[in-house]
Design goal:
The chain is α+β, with helices and mostly antiparallel strands. It is built from 6 helices and 13 strands. A 6-stranded antiparallel sheet has the order 1-2-13-10-7-8. Strand 1 and strand 2 form a beta hairpin. The chain is globular. The N and C termini lie far apart (43 Å).
């Protein structure tokens, strides 16, 4: 199982002191993508990303219910489906991104249920960044809202459908948002928003405050979110996996 988790890029499952891990991400044209997480991974967070065309880049953050020991095979199946279906669906230059994202969600939903042998809740946020247009076509299957910052405000990107893995027929919608010059997009796991201190949650407002402070690079933003969670809790988070995926666009 440790070999499986290492292959999926999940970090340590031992009891050492957790550290913030920064995932290696490929270069994008006029944008940057980054993922950060605490090394003590026990839940079902899965992040992945891959180039699916000359100007399209696919990314996703999934949260399979259950402890990592039991959810490992489902995580592996979901990642395999995400990659193979992503490469297939976005292979052509001329395509309808919304239709492709909806079909990707449908395939992920069925594969998660197949791998789990039945129902297994999996909130998911997946997006396709178009480098030519500076847009993100996304689906939010019952995940925590994505957050998009422009020059004036931070807006929420709410759920467009139910979590994956619950129903064989689980319709979802896809939406497209623009990422303007110096725009920021953040998608965080449930472990971020549910971090508690003195009966208060870090919440989406905590993430928004970090985004408003305006770290200019995705790497700095994702790390700043996790560092702020740790400062808020006055300890290393152990209640759940804590992951931040961010995308920033250059001027």
């Amino acid at each position: 199982m440790k070999a499986l988790l290492s292959k999926l890029g999940f970090g340590s499952t031992t009891g050492e002191v957790a550290e913030i891990v920064q995932a290696e991400t490929p270069a994008l044209r006029s944008a940057n993508l980054a993922v950060a997480y605490f090394s003590s991974r026990a839940g079902g967070d899965l992040h992945d990303f891959l180039r699916v065309g000359p100007h399209r880049f696919l990314f996703g953050l999934l949260d399979v219910a259950g402890k990592r020991e039991s959810s490992g095979p489902v995580l592996q199946a979901a990642q395999t489906c995400f990659r193979s279906s992503g490469e297939q669906l976005f292979a052509t230059t001329e395509l309808n991104e919304s239709d492709a994202m909806i079909e990707l969600s449908r395939r992920l939903n069925l594969e998660i249920m197949r791998a789990a042998g039945g129902v297994r809740s999996c909130p998911a946020f997946a997006g396709c960044y178009n480098e030519d247009l500076g847009t993100v076509c996304y689906v939010n299957a019952g995940h925590t809202p994505g957050l998009l910052r422009d020059d004036a405000r931070v807006i929420e990107l709410p759920a467009t459908g139910l979590p994956l893995g619950l129903f064989a027929l689980a319709p979802t919608d896809a939406r497209i948002v623009g990422l303007g010059a110096k725009g920021l997009l953040a998608v965080v796991s449930r472990g971020v928003v549910e971090a508690e201190s003195k009966n208060a949650e870090f919440g989406l407002e905590g993430v928004k405050s970090v985004m408003q402070a305006g770290p200019s690079s995705a790497r700095d933003l994702s790390r700043s979110i996790l560092q702020r969670v740790q400062d808020f809790m006055h300890m290393v988070p152990k209640h759940n996996d804590v992951t931040a995926l961010t995308l920033t666009r250059a001027a």
